[in-house]
Model the fold of this input.
Amino acid sequence: MSTNNNNNNNNNKLVYIDDHRVRHLLDWDKTFKAVEKSMESVAAGRAFQNARAITTIPKTHNFLYTMPGYLNDSKYGALGCKLVSHFPENPNRAKPLPYVLANILLLDPETSILKAVIAGTDITNWRTAAASAVATKYLHRKENNILAIMGAGVQGRIHAIAFQHFFKFKEVRIWNRTPERAQKLAVELNREHNTKNLFVAYDKAEDCVRNADVIVTATTGASTLVKCEWIKKGAHINAVAVNPNNRELDDATYKASQVYIDNWNGARSELNGIKELGVEFKGQIGDLITGAIHPPESDAITVFQSLGMAVEDCAMARLIYDLHLSSSS
Ligand SMILES: NC(=O)C1=CN([C@@H]2O[C@H](COP(=O)(O)OP(=O)(O)OC[C@H]3O[C@@H](n4cnc5c(N)ncnc54)[C@H](OP(=O)(O)O)[C@@H]3O)[C@@H](O)[C@H]2O)C=CC1
Ligand SMILES: O=C(O)C1=NCCCC1
Done:
């Protein structure tokens, strides 16, 4: 890239960075910083993205999201576009594929020359969990004893890993519609973390949510998962699912909570259902980072309604591109 890049790749060679390489380069602390900077940049007027285009594929439940963005920053600055799909039948194929698959095009911001095509599926997963972690950092400045994760799919798993990395909860509860998958995930995560009962599968959604300090909802379903009366005072919820036909939290939860978003353009385009409940969004997570708005009272229930931002993917693409070049030259 032409901005502040200390590598030797001054030619215009197009680079392809595949899934395997991306996985090798991903790092939680670097991902957190890239996402935090992109959220801050949105609020500070240094990052630009319109609402994403959503292409529906007729006679299926499939979507393709087109997510272009530009971020002006010496370290994470990038011009890029993510193509990310939502293919509900993918996990049920004979050879299962992820529900969400992504690729990112990274362009030179000064010339618009295509610099890299980067496998974007793991980037999407990591940056989504990191966005929830950033929101939790700014909205939940209190004890982190119990984390409740609703959904044991890709997002449920990556949130459990990321949140343990950043916050070190005493108990991480996992609920899933199919209980065996929650049990399997808890066993795997305890093995990977060398723990016995840190990750615990819960059969009932209510038992999982009650008394949790932080809740993550990450399913693809068309049913409400969390009821307001189960939620502890002062708890923080990261509502991760993006599903036009479903909200994972009941209406009472939205009405009783202070609801934050990642970006106004996306919210205006995709979150009208929540607005129709009479809920006013308090602001963007980036507004909390810049100090443009104040953090909520400590006993408020807070919700981060995550949509995912193109500029997070731009910052991540730049990070991975720079790491790739600096470790392969
Ligand atoms: N905000 C953001 O930036 C992003 C959001 N997402 C969103 O995250 C969500 C999860 O994606 P991902 O983890 O990749 O998907 P997966 O297919 O890996 O997991 C899906 C999960 O949803 C559960 N589920 C499906 N149907 C229902 C139902 N009717 N009731 C309850 N649970 C159900 C599945 O349970 P079971 O095991 O029983 O089938 C499984 O736990 C999606 O909504 C996606 O849009 C994804 C990327 C970025
Ligand atoms: O990458 C994102 O942002 C996504 N948001 C909605 C669902 C698919 C991925």
